[in-house]
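FORM 7B: Structural annotation worksheet

SECTION A. Query
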Amino acid sequence: MFGNRGAVASEHYLATLAGIDIIRAGGNAVDAACAAALVEGVVNQQMHSIGGEMPMLISAPRSSDVVCINGNMAAPGRATPQAFRDLGYSEIPDEGVMAAGVPGALGAIVEALLLFGRMRFEDVSSHAIEIASAGFPAHSGIVRQHKFGVTANFEKFSKQWPGSAAVYLPGGKIPAEGQLIRNPALAGMYSSLVEAERAHKADRAAGLRAVFKQFYRGEIASEIVKFVKDRGGLLEKADFDKFSIPVENSVSTHFCGFEIHKCGPWNQGPAMLQSLTILKNYDLRKLGHNSTEYLHLIIEAVKLAFADREQFYGDPSQIRVPMNVLLSDEYGEMRSRLIEKRAVGEVRPGHPFEWGALLPAPERMGGSSWGPGTVHVDAVDAEGYTAAFTPSGAWIRSSEIIPALGFPLSVRLSNCYLEPAHHPNVIAPFKRPRTTISPSLAMKDGKAWMAFGSMGGDQQDQWQLQFLLNRVVFGMSLQQAIEAPKFSSEHFPGLFTPHDFFLNRVRIEPDVGEKALLGLRNLGHDVDVAPAWTEGFVCAAERNLETGMLEAGCDPRSTKSEVFPACALAI
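SECTION B. Predicted structure
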């Protein structure tokens, strides 16, 4: 889809339409992305709700900087390994309130509007409020998505979680596709934020700060804490009083004339950049797109980068992460020399503190990889504003909807470990857990070129890497790069409990061709041929820096796999 005023891509047509409406009404791409993200949290609650997380990358016109808004949750002050052990847990559960922290998504939206938007919260939330109140047609993903949809969770909703049943089991039954789903409590929660903002009509910034205060310091926070404490969780009101949204510098690397930006090491995003620093030492185009040699090289580079993710990434406010080394070309070149002609069956982190290519085996950390609970929103406009948001967490499968508020809480603390004590992602008070949710933003010559991202847990940055290589190395169009067959490695420990991994296993779509599949097997890869149209789920929005034309694209896999009805539009 092409246009010259604005372009929006998201995982639901109503979210994309909301973003386009905001641009038509005079908002910029950041306003549009906020509106779209809020709608995603209504219509795709099997993937995300406002009780979750939302990392953001934003570029403003006339600036070469890319700003990261850290919309991650924060652990409760009582969250220690011993606290979980005292309650009988050997690992942090991935269901229920024990893995809940202070949600970051709403705060990230407020911060984005304060720093870069021009509209009020009332404006950008109007579509979400209307849809939650009047209802939206149930789509195949929310009804039937594997593990995450209403059908898969019917017994739990009907027998254990009345708050979820009230929204998603109208009349006590699984909704038919196309049947309206209403969430009046969610509409009411957002309306209370709008009322708080209206008390400051003459001062937009003060109104937005009132929205933040109403959610994190007022009755909404109190309701969340009461819900959690009634079920034995760790959250306290003091955790909300302490909470804020960090605004950070992005991290980046140069590749093929572009500057690729990601969030910091509390996020898996730098692993994609590390993959690029390894791959820039090879002539990828000469190898041929999705040839055996090309696929082997990408897989082995990803394995090395994600081994470093497991060994070193975590909340940089609480641990030391050697980002300057990990993202350096020198370190990438050292790591590239570890790639062999056959698949290597080890998890091999480097030794960045000593500028070494390989960490001694006794010091290595390296433990269901496929974690699909995420959506993505991209928006660009004619002024130059560019936004990549990855809303995730607080999906209906893992936590009951709070009856008074209309949304569940995230279980992102289940990404954390209880041991060993020196693990970079071990649970600690107020720590932000290491996450998979990872937006991307690419610059060229100091100007924002493309925003992109995907759902998919540990697979997100693998799919985004392949999409980017398709676009910049092989010259595919935006939509061709999205739709090309893809793979994902499961060689390294997943970020989600139980942190499983399968050495040398690679899930790959059959359309790469039998020759490539056989070639990978001959090189020692454990090839798991995935069903067609199940490895990808990318959204993107791009600006032609010569003509100013804007383009948006989304992945048809999302509809074909019955995950969500993705949509890309431009005006």
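SECTION C. Observations
The first strand starts at residue 2 and ends at 3. The longest helix spans residues 292-312.

SECTION D. Sign-off
Analyst initials: ____
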